[in-house]
Amino acid sequence: MTKLLEVKGLTASYGQVRALHGIDFELEQGGITTLLGANGAGKTTTLRALCGVVRPGGQVLFDGKNIVGKGPEDVARLGVAQVPEGRGTFTRMTVEENLQLGAMTRSDRAGITRDIDKMYDHFPRLKQRRTQQAGTLSGGEQQMLAIARALMLRPKLMLLDEPSFGLAPLVVREMFEILSALNREEKVSMLVVEQNAAQALALADQAYLLETGTIVMSGPAKQIGADENVRRSYLGY
Amino acid sequence: MTEPAKSLDKVAMTPRPPAVRPKSAVGPIIFLVLLAIAIVLPFMVKGFVVFQLTQTMVYAMAILGLNLLTGINGQFSLGHSAFYAIGAYTAAILIEQAGMNYALTLPVAGVICFVAGFLFGLPALRLEGIYLALATFALASATPQILKLSPLEHFTGGVQGIVVTKPDAPFGLPLSGDQWLYFFTLAVGVVLYILARNLVNSRAGRALLAIRDNPIAARSMGINSSLYKASAFGLSALYTGIAGALGAIIVAFVAPDSFTLTLSIGLLVGLVIGGVGWLPGALFGGAFLLFVPNIAESVSKGLSGAVYGLLLILVIYVMPSGAAGFLQAIVGRFKK
Fold first, then answer.
1. Is residue B47 in some structural domain?
2. How is domain A1-79+156-237 classified at the CATH fold level?
3. What CATH number does residue B181 fall under?
4. Spatial distance between the Cα atoms of A19 and A31, rounded to a whole number of angstroms
5. Residue B11 falls within a domain, yes or no?
């Protein structure tokens, strides 16, 4: 398999405070990689640095091209879709308008309409609520909308920032099943940042453990999940 | 991605779901009925009232421009008096010194204001909320003095301003000058309104709304936020500039002190009265801007400012989200 994303020595700072101290990780074409870590470990910063919201240092090769220094809109145009922390819902627009915004980089009208219908098949709840203001959706529905909107880009890579955050356990399970199905059927590669280690490790094939801006452990998700220390610190049994 | 509170943007917005696009079949019918009334109206009222109605439409166009910037794109401006002034002076100078036909000055004023607005919008990209308000405030306070500068006096007429020849009705139409200008303004206004409406409902309009709702998420959709924001500034200035040009033609006079910060604030008041983000609200805002000070004056000459303030508070109290929210509430009750 070929590498879709290769990150080498990635650094990022907020003002004087360095949040990432040069981390390395990679993602296979069609694979799912997860970054695990506690609050403040640098998970969200890593995603922000990848998509240019935070100015990064180091090297990020996406599809062989260095994307360090590119702005968020340029990264999106290369085929990287985001499901941001807090979902980034356009609250005062309808569900359908949110989906259409996901396809802003595309110009194939017919394809966009077809993809919207496809999203309604994946997420029937969104279809029921298509003309509703997106801000009035429940947290779980907004998360589904964020995922569907990201897919509208026809991304090569999806960046998901704590997709389970604030959702009921049942909804979390359903959402991870959907992500797994999307990865199988649509062949979308995913980089998932999570605190919910159990679900993320079950979904991913590669896992990296992040602590205060450095990677402390990495390997196949199964192996990480079986590690005694990881189990005690992150899985809680 | 929790953003630090962007105070002014958010305050200026209607807190409730705004009626950005009242999607219904009655929309076009209401539009046509209003248009029919607008066509009959100047034959029913006195000449001065016709002039006042024309002025209302001119203000409405300026407010429409501001609405594209603030209501649709979420950027704030206290500087729109400057674009109104540029439009007005462009028309006055072209008519009086270059002998240009008054109708042709409108597109010229529009283009000049678009460029001015776009260029001002570029540095404004780095500013948000109250900081953008300050920068645009600077623009508004500088404009009247620049117009008075002696090196420019040859063009601007300095403190005296420029008297503009009022056009008569063309093709021997049996209309008074005021009536003709009313219809001329109405036609321009209808075209500008339809264009604005189509823009808001288009893909580009969605991008503008997305930037307003969630700027970071908008960029991660691949929207070139800098280009859209600067263009929104330019387009907004274009609308306000054309309004300014029309204003110069109907008032037949331009002078620096007509274009102070007071005008900017007036446009902002009109925007809020009409409903931020609701395009037809501009007409309500324009009417408020023109008629309420007159009403205040007729109540008490000495305290007209205080009466105006009181009326303003009263209106905001009754319609907290402008005419938009008020009409929405009425329609909502009617449907039940």
1. yes
2. Rossmann fold (3.40.50)
3. 1.10.3470
4. 26
5. no
Could B18 and A92 be called an inter-chain contact, meaning their C-beta atoms sit closer than 8 Å? yes
Pull the structure tokens for residue B147. Answer: 């117009």
How many structural domains does chain B have?
Answer: 1
Residue A75 is predicted with a pLDDT of 93
Core vs surface per residue A14-30: b (16+ CB within 10 A) or e: eeeeebbebbebbbeeb
Model pLDDT, residue B167: 82
In a domain? residue B328: yes
3-class state of residue B255 by DSSP? coil
Place of tokens 């008041």: B269
Domain that holds residue B250: 24-335
DSSP string computed for B73-135 = T----S-HHHHHHHHHHHHHHHHHHS---HHHHHHHHHHHHHHHHHHHHHHHTT--THHHHHH
Please list every residue in chain B whose beta carbon sits closer than 8 Å to the beta carbon of residue A166.
none
CA B12 to chain centre: 16
Q: Which residues of B touch A (CB under 8 A)?
A: 1-2, 17-18, 20, 203, 206-207, 209-210, 213-214, 216-225
Residue of A nearest to B17 (CA): A92
Nearest Cα residue in chain A from B23: A131
In chain A, residues with a C-beta closer than 8 Å to the C-beta of B325 are none
Is residue B155 a contact partner of residue B33, using CB atoms and an 8 Å limit?
no
Cβ–Cβ < 8 Å for A85, A161: yes
- Residue range A143-165, pLDDT digits in tens: 999 999 999 999 999 999 998 88
Digit-coded pLDDT (tens) for A30-52: 999 999 988 888 888 999 999 88
Angstrom distance (rounded) from CA B318 to CA B314: 6
Answer yes or no: do B216 and A72 touch at CB < 8 A: yes
Task: Report CB contact under 8 Å: A104, B213.
Answer: no
> Domain residues of chain A, as ranges?
1-79+156-237, 87-154
Bridge partners of A62, per DSSP, are A5, A65
User: Does the pLDDT of residue A79 top 60, yes or no?
Assistant: yes
The percent of residues above 90 in pLDDT, for chain B, comes to: 41
Is B131 inside a domain boundary? yes
Interchain pair A93, B210: CB under 8 A: yes
The span from the CA of B185 to the CA of B57, in Å, is 7
Which of B209, B217, B224 is closest, CB to CB, to A84? B217
Q: Is A234 exposed, middle or buried (0-12, 13-18, 19+ CB in 10 A)?
A: buried
Distance CA B253, CA B39 (A): 26
Shortest Cα–Cα distance, A230 to chain B (Å): 28
- pLDDT-flagged residues of chain B (< 50): 1-22
Give the separation between CA A77 and CA A13, rounded to whole angstroms. Answer: 25
Cα–Cα distance measured from residue A206 to residue A221, given in angstroms and rounded to the nearest whole number: 5
Task: Find the CB nearest B223 among A53, A73, A97.
Answer: A73
| Short-list B197, B180, B176, CA closest to B278 | B197
Query: How many A×B Cβ pairs under 8 Å?
Result: 81
